[in-house]
Amino acid sequence: MPAHGGPEDDDSDKPGKGSTETGTITKTRPKTKRPNLYRVLLLNDDYTPMEFVVLVLQDVFNKSREEAMQIMLHVHQKGVGECGVYPYEVAETKVTRVMDTARKNQHPLQCVMEKQ
After folding, report:
1. Mean pLDDT of the chain, nearest integer
2. Do 101 and 59 touch, CB atoms closer than 8 A?
3. Per the database record, which ranges form the Adaptor protein ClpS core domain (predicted)?
């Protein structure tokens, strides 16, 4: 027969017995830094047809025809217009797609990105 107070007699792991301390478990989330955002801009030139610019805005930036027309007219009148704001890699890809499409169609359309 085991002596009292031995390991077999310990009730500390049973409900209602043992420690009465209560605590709150908090999960710490790592601080995730938001990615830097970049504005993708179209630059005006006197040679690229307006309709081509509208098609590029619809294709590359998923703009509706109305949105594309507004941006194209803004670029035409002000010299530069914002197509969208994206994380670095997305902005870089969109700039490349615009430049490649313009080059393939022999248009001098320029597209750049700048940190917001």
Report:
1. 87
2. yes
3. 33-111
